[in-house]
Amino acid sequence: MLSISRTKWLWFCLLLTLVVSSNVLIYQLNMLQPLPNQVALGTLFDFIITIPIFTYFFIIRKRYSWKYLLSLAVLGYGAAYLIIPHKMLTSYHNTSYIPIFFEGILFFIEIYIGYKLIRKLPAIIRNFNNNFTNTSTFQDRLEEALMLHLKPSRTLDIISSEITMLYYSLFSWRKEQVSVLENASIFTFHKKTSFVALYVMLIHAIVLESIGFHFLLHSWSPVLSLIALVLNVYTVLLFLAEIQAIRLCPIFLTNHQLHFQIGIMKRLKVSIKDIKSVHYYEGPEKTSNKESKHIFDAVLSDFMKEKPSIEIELHSPKKAKFLYGISKNVTKIHLRPDEPQRFYKILNTKLNEELNL
Q: For the whole model, what pTM was predicted?
């Protein structure tokens, strides 16, 4: 994925600020009152057409799907609705059909995606089951099966992430640690941390907050209380999936590849020949924001996050995958395996073997 330059970000933010601030001020300045009703149409045009267009050219173009423009237009209508005085909008009855129009388009897109997925579901399941010996984790197998039958897209990444979350949170409790390729070395990285205890505490807090806050919010707005409840249930499922994925998916090292799956949030596969060096970490406890952008952080969250014990440097940037298809290029890997000496020794042996080939 192409990165966005700082200059483009600055121009985008400047234009967005100008458009939004000018539309807000025109309704707030007393010296401009009274305003003709046609001004409302201008604001709607700015938020539904103008902002999505320059967002496309500065941010979306050649990086993301044009389908995001529909969501931007809906959000733009919502923002305009909050800015424009209600009495000016009521003079244009047809504007109430704008969100219905966009919702209809999004609905038909979702129906089309669902139809394609259901039609190819038997073949996807067949490939998923047949690829059991080729890849190790549920997420990798699912991604491979989907890519064989559907065109790669951010929507497909989101579907894959959601299925993975549901699998680990609801259907993986009787599973044992993932079966890896023959002759692979396995390294756990959660047993000497308080990661599970931390997440159980967070789940407990969310459940208690949901019960009390739901009834309090329901008396004020039933719709908002329902939205908050759904978000809390989703968060609990996400945390459960994270616990299970970390417990079931260790780091593993084959003769040619090092594989990381850190929960359901991040993944990285690195070829042994792409590793420049491996050494015990002696850097600062906290890396700078600039440096952290190029680091794959495999150290788990804890009550007090520990320093990495191992640092791996790569010859060239490699793409790490995150939830919902987000990715970034990394040049270093920070990790804290339960057996750092064993990991260091085995990986160095593999590196020396690779150099002697």
A: 0.71
Q: What percent of the chain has pLDDT over 90?
A: 29
Percent of the chain with pLDDT over 70: 83
Write the pLDDT tens digit of every residue in 183-204: 678 899 999 999 999 999 999 9
Provide the residue type at 288 as one letter.
S
Summarised one tens digit per residue, pLDDT across range 90-134 is: 655 555 555 556 556 666 666 766 777 778 888 888 888 776 554
Q: Which residues contact 264 (CB under 8 A, 6 or more apart)?
A: 139, 161, 164, 165, 168, 238, 241, 242, 245, 323
Calculate the average pLDDT of the chain. Answer: 81
Alpha carbon dihedral 27, 33, 36, 42, in 10-degree steps, equals -30
Please report the sign of the dihedral spanned by the C-alpha atoms of residue 269, residue 272, residue 277, residue 281: positive
